[in-house]
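(Deposited chain)
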Amino acid sequence: MTSVQLVLNLGGKWKSHHGQYWYEGRRAKAFDFPRDANYDLLLDKVYYVTGIDRDHYRVSMTTVAHTFRPSMPIEIVDDEDVALLLRRENVDPLVCISIEEIGNECPERNHKPPESSANPHHETREYEFHHTQKSNMQVTDIDEFQTSDVPNMGANLDDIRLVPPPCSFYSIHSGEVAPRPVTMRIEVSEVFPSKQQLQSQLGRYCLANQCQIRVFKSDTTRYQVRCIVEGCNWRMRAAKVQNSDHFQIRKFDNQHTCSTEARLSHQRQASARVIGEHIQEKLHDHRLYKPKEIINDMQREFGISCNYHKGYRARHIALEEVQGTPVESYSILPSYLYMLEQTNPGTITDFHTDSSDRFMYMFFCFKACIDGFLSSIRPVIAVDGTFLTGPHRGVLFVAVCMDGNEQIFPLAFGVGDSETNEAWEWFLSRLHKAVGEVDDLVIVSDRKNSIITGVEKVFPNSFHGACAIHLQRNMLGHYGKNKALKRYFERAARVYRESQFRQRMEQLANINSEAAQYVTDAGFDRWSRAYSPRKRYNIMSTNIAESMNNAIKGCKELPITGVIDYIRGVLQGWFHDRRTAALKLTTQLTTAADVAIGVKDDEARYMRVYPITFYTFVVKDGDLDGHVDLTTKSCSCREFDVDQLPCAHALACIRLRGFSFPDYCSLYYSSTFLVTAYSGEIHPVGQPSEWLVPSDIASKIVHPPVGRRPPGRPRKNRNPSFGEEVTQRRCTTCHRVGHNSHTCTYPKSSTMGSTCEIGEASGSHNVL
């Protein structure tokens, strides 16, 4: 009878990362188990090894299948599940267990567990377990607690933390769930994979137990520490395990004989590295974890005060541990992009390096985005670039659209060295490869020559439209910030009729003829809805691209693969949530289209309709009558033609004939198209240790781009566009600009000065 080493994982919890779930445990037990065993024998063995009282607790077992794609945990409930578990070759089967108390009451605290006898037949080994298994199973995150909290548990579980029975921990004051205090245990005979991991665990132990230590002896084979207070009996000694890199704790006196005040007078163990290792798990979901939040969490969890600089360095260390260093990230870029294509079939990725194998450009476009765009999205693409703030800088390129529910629809992304002609042409050529030739395509961007040139070369059959907002800012920057000038330009850009456009331009010229000439030279067809040769719908600016940049701004300081994975996670969530919401719609139109039709219908109720034929009408609307043709879905106001949604004139006619409103709306605004747009799925790539990458891909070399990080703190916010108004911070105490009340250095008595003095100090100016 053959046996297999079975690993029993305890003391952890299920965690999630954008739809991918895994069990992360701190400790485990390993034992030999016969391959021909059945479910009952495995369950008996689990109860025996753990020492759990089966009269009071129910054990649930799960395992993870080793398949190409990340798999959901499989619950072990019968003999067939056990057979599949023990059938695996070249891998130690992993079993994750959780316990549930039989009954509804929480177990009593501080109940001492009885001792259990050793098993003479099977060898059981206990060790520190740091392996992680990922899955796609959505399981509630369960808090950890000490094994001493569980009654009737064997002595061989003294150093294992178990998943607790379901009970709540509430705050008396707020009535909300309060965080449990973080605890960390270290035991004699505990083994660590390396000396560094021992030091890391010891640092977290000091954080949790609020004590300070000093190193007594440290070399390649031993590590001894003592309490920082001279004469205190607390000490720990660890030594290297023979013929390995492991370190084992040989002696540990955990009793402090010093005063609490003496050992808490310093916080030397609360280093940036220790704090960074503690907060790593909070960054796995790409959370925007700010230094100020780290400072607050350290104060709340451990009662430790740290400054902003330490919080910033701790966050940097944690990000490097989670995402890897920039150099490592560039080195695995080919493998990452390959796995992105494998886990998301049909996805298009590409990268380009120079002759020295240094990174230049990168592109990725998910199959779900391609299919959604080609089948269900209006053919208007907004492109834009935003600067990355990581060590190697660069530019993030985005191409986005707008779905029928007026939501941003992501299409493609890329990274380049800068917004040069070559970079934009390379990005747009990959975008063309992804979507091909699209009928009536409009590409909207600012008026950078590099984008205009790239669009003309790569998409010669498309129409390039300028962002009206960027043009407006440029005009105001050159000719003064005049509110009337701004207002008439906005109206000119938005109107549908050419006659209305000419009126607005005359009004604009009366205010400033040079400004009118400036926007005229830009070409009316580029920025106005009235003269656009193709349908731009309501997409007159690149705001959707800038909004996309804002939605993914958390990736701007990450390494290259971190940037991609952050965006992938955001898109995965968007597609899932929007697909779910779209499937729940009970109307023929999307919510946004339904609201727009409702607003126009309120106007249509007061219009008088004069039929010409059964499908053609004249609608009286003051001086702007509408000539409607329902067969061609057109109106002389051009709103019906351009937006492909009935205008108020058309709605009045549809109401008169008793027709259905949705029948005269473009399918782009239908709930069916919205479901189709988000019907695709976006999957994660899994852990690098689980990747199966061909050698020719894995051997590709990618070095970071050449560049030197500028001095000072990296800028987080984007640079304002030319002519863009920037809101200045104003102090509520002294009313001066440039600071707030928390950093105000002016005495309160100075705030009683004259209005003139305040105005001069604030640098205020008149706005025309």
